[in-house]
Amino acid sequence: METSTPTPSAERISRWRWVWVLSRLAFILFVGGVVLLLWMSDRADKEERRATLISDILWLEQNLRFHLTRNEELLGRIDQPHTASAAAFESFARTAFGFESGLRQLIWIGQDGVVRFAHPVIMDSSLVGDGGESIPSRQSFMLARSLGKPVYSRAYPYVGNDWQFEVHVPVSRAGRVVGVAVGVYRIRDLLSDSVPWWLAERYRISVTGDSGRVLGTRSKVESPVTEEGYQVTFDPPGWGLALHAVPYHAPRPLASLLLSASLVALAVIVLWSLWVLRRHVQRRQTVEEQLRREHAFRKAMEDSLDTGMRARNLDGEITYVNPAFCRMVGLPAAELIGRRPPMPYWADDYIEETRAMNDRVLAGQGPEEGFELKLKHSNGQVIDVLIHEAPLIDAHGQHSGWMGSMVDITERKHADERARQQQERLQSTARLVAMGEMASSIAHELNQPLAAISSYCTGAANLLRSDSSAAAVLPALDKAVEQARRAGQVIRRIYSLSRHSEDRFESLRLAERIDAALALLEGDIRQKGIRVVLDFQAQPQVEGDPVLLEQALFNLLRNAAESMRDTAPEQRQIAIALACAEGYALLKIADHGCGIGTDVADKLFDPLFTTKAEGMGMGLAICRSVVENHRGRLSFEANPEGGTVFHILLPLAPQ
Asked: Average pLDDT over the chain, rounded to whole?
């Protein structure tokens, strides 16, 4: 049996046949790929045009809504002077028309529904106030007046096949509706003012009613439109109105021409594709290099910050720290990244407080204004830090953790403490200065009871020498004892003021502190011939330090007395009024002195500022410090009768 073997010539023919088949298959696949590419390109183009149409019409709807809302706010801010006369109302209307608001007429309607003013003054027969109850405008007016908020009317026809609608904005004064400002829009004019030219050249914009009737159109290009379009509800004003946009027809390249050109220029396209691919690779390399430079720049910027930065995921695990944070806690980044609470830098004495704040932050309930914590450096030193936490959002818009910024405020805390101690020492020094200024008054005050004691004792001795009975001697001795007690009270007040070291808050009667301060100034007041008028409408109790309050009152009363040095004797008067209102004690001290000039009013309470040649400028500064330390407020104003009135506001003690 003979077998045939293929010849080399047959093998070559078979091989070339397969090559020919493969080339045809490649050509068919190429043509199919081009057709598919054209189809997908056409579809993507349609989807892009559709997306652009939707985006443009939504933007236009938001723009129209912005204009209408802005006009509502403008009409709602019409004040009483603009509704007082036709000229004032016309001025307001011209201002409103100047904002390209789309308004074509403004009307002011009183609370009774009667039209007061209009601009322009040409009125339509269907306007509010001139029509019946069945007219939509009248209904909108009544609804706006009853609801107290803007209400839009239905669209109704106007002259020349135009349509218009109204917005009724109630205007309230002192919680009462005094009228309704009505803005009239014409749909064509509103579209003309609100639709930009580039949008009108791209689409035919129209407003349709609830029955599909076109009420107004904005178009600049006379060109056939496609059948597809997009429509959104126009609310406000509502009432079935819709905003409809239809794109103009644009000629498209024929797929067959593109296919033929692509087949003819196959080689060129392949070369061009390779060139485009090469450019793409080059651009990508450039972008990657820019990204690396940007990352290096941001890393250098973060490393140069003095503010500590710490990033954590939602479970509280540290994912990033910058060098400033590492320096702040004295630990390297390798020991911090990956750690979970409790952290090694938490202060031992504040573990629970720190853990509670950490849980609040991870739960999304951290204080937005930041919070203070005490942390621990690796050397054991406790530091104060101010922390602000913000959510970390990844590239997909998801909340992935928290970013915290920390500022070391230890030095600031120490500075505040030193300032507080300095203030206490300054108050103590000022208290001693005040003691020196009171010395002359105290000497005069003590001279009187001591002189009376001497007189009463001399009289008692004379009575005893004359063999008088004990009943005649006892009154004189009782009076001597009373004067001695009075002198002892004066000395005890001076001693308590000079030895006062810390605030001792207690419940006390403010009237008693006023009497005590007046007692210290009694001699000076009597010597200068000053009348003190007391008007205590209430006897309030406040919580405070009696010595500090008495010192502040003494300073204010002494200043009031000294300010009347050049006042006529018959006008020298200090009026002290005490009352209660809304949980506060109200104290008013008024004098008829020289007053306070406007050039020193802003600096009156500044430390070391004084208008007296012998003063130190600490009296009023200490007064304000004492009152504010008692959660109160100290202020002053000019006395209408001449002089100055100081006001003290202190919270009442809880019952």
From this structure: 76
Q: How many whole angstroms separate alpha carbon 532 and alpha carbon 515?
A: 11
For residue 84, what is the DSSP state? S
Cβ–Cβ under 8 Å, residues 322 and 304 = no
Let me know whether 272 and 314 are in one domain.
no
Residues 322 and 217 in one domain: no
Q: How many CB atoms lie within 10 A of CB 214?
A: 12
Q: What would the pLDDT profile of 346-355 be if each residue is shown by its tens digit?
A: 888 888 888 8
Give the count of beta carbons closer than 10 Å to the beta carbon of residue 559. 19
Assigned domain for 233 exists = yes
Residue-wise pLDDT for 181-197, tens only, equals 888 888 888 888 788 88
Q: Are 404 and 416 members of one domain?
A: no
Residue 554 and residue 495 share a domain: no
Cα(648)–Cα(586) distance, rounded to whole angstroms?
6
Whether residues 393 and 443 fall in one domain? no
Domain holding 476: CATH number? 1.10.287
CA distance 165 to 157: 9
Distance from C-alpha of 57 to C-alpha of 506, rounded to nearest angstrom: 70
User: Structural domain tally of the chain?
Assistant: 5
CATH number at residue 382: 3.30.450.20
The number of angstroms, rounded, from the C-alpha of 80 to the middle of its chain's C-alpha atoms is: 29
Q: Are strands 573-581 and 531-536 parallel, antiparallel or unpaired?
A: parallel
| Containing structural domain, residue 271 | 265-301
Is the predicted pLDDT of residue 611 greater than 50, yes or no? yes
Determine the average pLDDT of the residues in 6-31: 54
User: If 0-12 CB within 10 Å is exposed, 13-18 middle and 19+ buried, where does residue 400 land?
Assistant: middle
Q: Which residue has the tokens 């104060």?
A: 384
Bridge partners (DSSP) of residue 167 are 152, 183
Question: What pLDDT is recorded for position 343?
Answer: 85
Same-domain pairing of 492 and 516: no
Q: What is the pLDDT of residue 415?
A: 81
Of 408, 425, 455, the residue at which a domain comes to its end is 408
The span from the CA of 503 to the CA of 492, in Å, is 18
Contact, 250 vs 165, CB < 8 A? no
- State pTM to two decimals: 0.37
Flag the least confident range among 9-23, 315-329, 498-512, 618-632.
9-23
CATH number of the domain enclosing 654: 3.30.565.10
Residue 56 carries which side chain, given as an amino acid letter? Answer: D
pLDDT > 50? residue 128:
no
Query: Does 327 share its domain with 395?
Result: yes
pLDDT tier, 226 (very low <50, low <70, confident <90, very high otherwise): low
pLDDT at 380 over 70: yes
296 domain residue, yes or no: yes
76 burial level (CB within 10 Å; 0-12, 13-18, 19+): middle
Domain boundary, last residue among 485, 502, 519: 502
Same structural domain, 255 and 275: no
β 382-393/399-408 pair status: antiparallel
